UniProtKB/TrEMBL annotation:
It comes from Quillaja saponaria. SUPFAM superfamilies: Ribonuclease H-like. It comes from the Eukaryota. The lineage of its organism: Eukaryota, Viridiplantae, Streptophyta, Embryophyta, Tracheophyta. Gene3D superfamilies: Ribonuclease H-like superfamily/Ribonuclease H. PROSITE patterns: RNASE_H_1. GO terms for molecular function: nucleic acid binding; RNA-DNA hybrid ribonuclease activity. Residues 205-310 form the RNase H type-1 domain. This is Ribonuclease H protein. Transmembrane segments: none annotated.
């Protein structure tokens, strides 16, 4: 004879407690899958996205985790031995990390920021704008935790490593580069005939045009600009541009120069374009010899997309 049983208890009898636990576990799963989604959609470099994925899965090999797996003798923090090095300790609460966040998080959000468990902390940082700078906090958070972990490893494993004296500015530079690489296609483009400097020029074959570009960064990273010009095989000037880029690295500036140079070439319907750049790194990135650091990947992909257009 068939009979109804409650599947969440061993004896088949319904209890409020088992129903409550069941609902609770569904809501935890929902919440975790929302968090994984947030990490999945994080817009910056893949290496940082991968780090965030490890973070939400509790797979960062801190001393506490290494000791738990029997790979380390002590779970203590290598930088302030009185505390166990959990993920939260390492990336947020350790004095080496704490002082750093104070310079990034809005004062009114500090108690929430330092008062949550790890999952709520990551969720908070990927969903709320709690940064004191005028940039996306989710991107800033991802870049910051990635750098904190990198510097922690260097401090422990590299004998001569000195922590950077300007960590916030290093992070903000990367944030700014990621933000710029996400700009829509119709970014700034200024026609400017007289400011382009010819560095090197080889006459292109008939029917081809040459694009010369140059990008520079005062400080690397620092205030940067890019410019370039297009000429045909009769040595005639066809178009030129000069663009202010804000703060970025010299490699970024060179890449932006190519990006801004290819767009007028495409607009003017030149499909046979010889490019001359004065950076071996950028030439290698664009010819696929080297896919570049992940930091530049989205910008390289946008340039390669223009190059591949027919
Ligand atoms: Zn510590």
């Amino acid at each position: 004879m068939d009979m109804k049983v409650w599947g969440l208890t061993t004896n088949g009898n319904f209890t409020i407690k088992s129903a409550y636990h069941s609902l609770e576990s569904v809501s935890i799963q929902d919440s975790m899958s929302r968090l994984w989604n947030l990490v999945w959609k994080w817009p910056g470099p893949q290496r940082i996205k991968t780090f965030l994925w490890l973070l939400v899965h509790n797979r960062i090999m801190t001393n506490e985790e290494r000791a738990r797996r029997g790979c380390a003798q002590t779970p203590s923090c290598g930088r302030c031995p009185a505390q166990n090095e959990s993920i939260l300790h390492c990336l947020r609460d350790c004095p080496f990390s704490h002082g750093f966040w104070i310079k990034l998080v809005k004062g009114k959000s500090l108690s929430l920021f330092f008062g949550t468990n790890i999952i709520d902390w990551i969720k908070l940082c990927l969903t709320k704008e709690i940064g004191m700078h005028e940039v996306d906090w989710g991107i800033t958070f991802g870049v910051a935790v990635w750098y904190l972990w990198k510097w922690r490893n260097q401090q422990i494993f590299e004998e001569n490593f000195t922590p950077p004296w300007n960590p916030v500015s290093i992070i903000m530079t990367m944030v700014s580069e990621i933000t710029k690489s996400l700009l829509p296609e119709n970014g700034v483009l200024v026609e400017h005939r007289k400011t382009c400097v010819q560095l090197c020029w080889i006459m292109p074959p008939d029917g081809w045009v040459t694009l010369n570009t140059d990008g520079s960064s005062r400080g690397n990273p620092g205030v940067s600009g890019a410019g370039g010009l297009l000429r045909n095989s009769d040595e005639n000037w066809l178009a030129g541009f000069a663009v202010a880029l804000g703060v970025c690295s010299s490699t970024s500036a060179e890449l932006w120069a190519v990006f801004h140079g290819l767009r007028p070439a495409w607009k003017l319907e030149f499909k046979k374009v010889m490019m001359e750049v004065d950076s071996k790194t950028v030439a290698a990135y664009l010819s696929n010899e080297n896919n570049g650091t992940n930091l530049h990947i989205s910008l390289i992909a946008r340039i390669q997309k223009i190059m591949a257009q027919d």
